[in-house]
Specification:
binds adenosine-5'-triphosphate; five-stranded mixed β-sheet; Nucleotidyltransferase, domain 5; globular; single chain; binds magnesium ion; 10 helices; alpha/beta; 2 domains; about 350 residues
């Protein structure tokens, strides 16, 4: 199928649009609002929604221009319907509905997490099932068995904080500005990951357990910084960052391998913003190679929020025919099971 899809993503603080044909990304435009939110130390929902409103049309135009296609040539329009910040989602959904209505196109209302899983379907990674997928992002951490891209099956998930949330909160404790992930990784690169023995969540559970927990490691970092005091933290920042990063990414890689062993699949994939982390990428690569598994690691721009992954999810989500989608709405929460196709 070589459908030409225009996709729009506005679930958090990236205004994104992409044009994708089959598995080929023709354009992938991302306007990040991170600088706007940095002064507040995190995403402010109202600020995000208002900014999406001012940028979304220009981002869509840019995606069409870069792909060299007009709206009339597009076969379907896709948009992130859930989960995310409701005001932010509404801007993308209203834009996509208006464009689809005016251009008489069918609309696909895609799931953001499905997008993180489906990112590795796109070229050049182009992974086919079966495989086990790790999604580690700002709001979610989960393992899915993907035997069919349309219906990922949940194998395990975090019982408290998401990995990205723990990374952002830890970064904040170390004085790294929002968004914390890239800054924490850069600082960790100068430190010793064995310097502090931070606890790994659910370590005492059996080998079949595929859930995660990151609340304990976050508290452990807080106590370590209190004990060290301001001067001590200033001296040991890189070691703290490296040890903290290790305590988060190692269980992600370990449980992904464990899940792949249990499922007997020939491949693993990673996705979501935390999958942009170099240490996680290296651990997953090593673990997969040791087992002779194929490893699908999408480009970093396809791990953090983008619209190309929404086009990928749309490929496996039924379209709503013109003009039946006009009554459809955005939803803040994920459905039971976590991913809607
Ligand atoms: N290089 C990196 N190392 C570690 N974490 C990173 C890196 N780059 C980004 N992140 C983290 O990824 C998260 C953002 O991922 P993403 O954009 O997918 O999340 P989200 O869309 O806000 O949440 P969700 O996808 O769960 O709705 C943040 O927590 C950020 O700190
Ligand atoms: Mg995301």
């Amino acid at each position: 199928m070589t459908d030409l899809v225009l996709a729009i993503e506005t679930s958090c603080d990236e205004t994104a649009a992409a044009v994708v044909q089959g598995r080929a990304i023709l354009s992938n435009v991302i306007a990040s609002q991170a600088d706007l939110h940095a002064v507040y130390g995190g995403v402010v929902p109202e600020v995000a929604a208002r900014h999406h409103l001012t940028t979304v049309n220009a981002v869509v135009d840019e995606a069409l221009d870069r792909a060299g296609v007009g709206l009339a040539q597009v076969d379907r329009i896709a948009v992130t319907r859930r989960p995310g910040l409701i005001g932010a989602l509404l801007v993308g959904v209203a834009t996509a509905k208006a464009l689809a209505y005016a251009a008489r196109k069918d609309l696909v209302m895609a799931d953001h997490l499905h997008g993180h899983v489906a990112a590795c379907w796109l070229d050049p990674v182009a992974l086919d099932p079966p495989f086990v997928s790790l999604t580690a992002s700002g709001g979610h951490t989960r393992l899915d068995l993907v035997e069919d891209y349309a219906h990922p099956v949940l194998l395990g998930q975090t019982l408290d904080d998401a990995a990205g949330e723990a990374i952002d909160k830890g970064a904040r404790l170390l004085g790294i500005p929002y968004p914390g992930g890239p800054g924490l990784e850069a600082l960790a690169g100068q430190g010793d990951a064995t310097a502090f023995d931070f606890p790994v969540g659910l370590r005492s559970r059996g080998p079949d357990d595929l859930d995660f927990s990151f609340a304990g490691v976050k508290t452990a970092l807080l106590y370590a910084t209190r004990e060290l005091g301001d001067d001590g933290v200033a001296d040991r920042r890189a070691d703290l960052a490296a040890s903290y990063q290790e305590a988060i990414v190692r269980p992600l890689a370990d449980r992904l391998m464990r899940a792949a062993d249990a499922a007997g699949v020939p491949a693993v994939s990673i996705g979501g913003g935390v999958a942009a982390n170099g240490r996680l990428r290296a651990l997953v690569q090593e673990g997969a190679e040791r087992r002779g598994l194929r490893v699908a690691i999408p480009d970093r721009t396809l791990c953090t929020d983008n619209a190309a992954m929404i086009a990928a999810a749309a490929h496996f989500t039924p379209a709503i025919a013109w003009p039946e989608f006009v009554g459809e709405d955005a939803m803040a929460t994920a459905p039971p099971g976590g991913i809607a196709a």
